[in-house]
Amino acid sequence: MRLLVTGATGLLGSTLVARAMAAGHETVATYHRTDPGIGDDRTEMDITDSGRVAAVVGASEPDAVVNCAAMTDVDGCEKDPERAAAVNADAPGELAAASADAGAALVQVSTDYVFDGRAERRYTEADDPAPLQVYGRTKLEGERAARKTAPDALVPRLSFVYGRHGATDELTGFPAWVMDRLETGEAVPLFVDQRVTPTRAGAAAEAILSLLEREAAGVVNVAARSCVTPYDFGHRIADRRGVPEDRLVESESTALDRPARRPSNTCLDVTRVEDRLGREQPTLEADLDAVL
Ligand SMILES: NC(=O)c1ccc[n+]([C@@H]2O[C@H](COP(=O)([O-])OP(=O)(O)OC[C@H]3O[C@@H](n4cnc5c(N)ncnc54)[C@H](OP(=O)(O)O)[C@@H]3O)[C@@H](O)[C@H]2O)c1
Questions:
Q1: How far is the CA of 10 from the centre of ligand 1 (A)?
Q2: How many independent structural domains does the chain possess?
Q3: Is 28 within 8 Å of 3 (Cβ atoms)?
Q4: Which residues line ligand 1 (CB under 6 A)?
Q5: Residue ranges of the chain whose pLDDT lies below 70
Q6: Can you give the pLDDT at residue 255?
């Protein structure tokens, strides 16, 4: 396959480019501000510039476009809702139109933050979204804009993404933050009132590529099987590193004064992706073995 990946300097985008190339796919890596340094071809493309999107997608002749670009700073989206709407809500529609014109499949990566977190069970793809903040609202609008123009678009919903960067191999996301604090001897405040199914970027990239090969369409949750609090997650990291666990401190997310509200439970049900791929999703233990 010939793939065009947006947001190729980000964690998921770089991982996708690296995994796609390793699997023998030709890959065009597109980026916003910083060249990722990987990809068979690399080109700058701001996804909010619809003229540039049409030109780059048209000239690249991809079989599939994978949109990993997004404004992912949840509090930043609350402070700049116009920018969040342009990147997360409007640009996916333009990418869908350019993909359709090029005869390419579309993957619009989305998030568990489309849910309000009030359910006391895992969320399936059939649950009604009800985002609590600008980030989730604009990402949901982006899903809808993409699917309106490209009804067969694949929409993987990810949760709490972390992993090794595809270009630099640098550990990125929550485990990196926990390990930095443990190594400097600082206390690590970890939420006990939030539950997530963490997504390792490498596992997500492989699942997305396999789903694309099977021409899967529609919303598909892509996350680990394990539903944990950040406090549990931190313990598992400290355990593996042999670091004294007394530095891990229970904390409550509600005690923090942040611009955007966060959902308390966004654990995702992964039955659909397991059925589509005919295998189990990794546990958090297996994912940590892969990155630490
Ligand atoms: N991180 C999470 O915990 C999480 C959870 C659930 C779902 N997701 C979803 O997973 C996907 C990948 O996230 P990630 O964790 O890999 O995020 P990331 O590391 O923040 O990467 C996002 C990338 O998007 C690029 N970007 C932003 N604005 C752009 C624009 N206008 N044009 C082109 N590129 C632009 C950024 O480039 P610049 O930095 O140069 O602007 C960055 O390289 C996103 O769809 C996100 O919503 C993430």
A1: 6
A2: 1
A3: yes
A4: 6-7, 9-13, 32-34, 46-48, 68-72, 87, 109, 111-112, 139, 158-161
A5: none
A6: 85
Using the atom order of ligand 1, give the atom closest to the CA of residue 87. Answer: 31
Provide the residue type at 226 as one letter. Answer: S
Q: What is the CATH number of the domain that holds 125?
A: 3.40.50.720
DSSP 256: S
Helix/strand/coil (H/E/C) assignment for every residue in 102-129: HCCEEEECEEHHHCCCCCCCCECCCCCC
Q: Is 65 domain-assigned? A: yes
Ligand 1 pocket test: which of 28, 38, 57, 68 has the largest number of ligand atoms within 8 Å of its C-beta?
68
In a domain, 36, yes or no: yes
Q: State how far the Cα of 42 lies from the Cα of 245, in Å rounded to an integer.
A: 44
Show the tokens assigned to 265.
Answer: 């439970």
In the reported structure, the alpha carbon of residue 102 is separated from the centroid of ligand 1 by a whole-number distance in angstroms of 24
pLDDT at 126: 98
> Best mutation site among 32, 72, 157, 200 for ligand 1, i.e. most ligand atoms within 8 A of its Cβ?
72
| 239-260 residue pLDDT tens | 988 887 788 999 999 888 999 9
CA-47 nearest atom, ligand 1: 32
Segments forming the whole domain that contains residue 128:
2-163+198-224+268-282
Q: Quick check: is 277 in a domain?
A: yes
8 Å CB contact between 244 and 229: no
pLDDT tens, 84-119?
A: 999 999 999 999 999 999 999 999 999 999 999 999
Q: Which amino acid residue places its CA nearest to atom 36 of ligand 1?
A: 7
Among protein residues, the one whose CA lies closest to atom 40 of ligand 1: 33
Asked if residue 120 belongs to a domain, the reply is yes
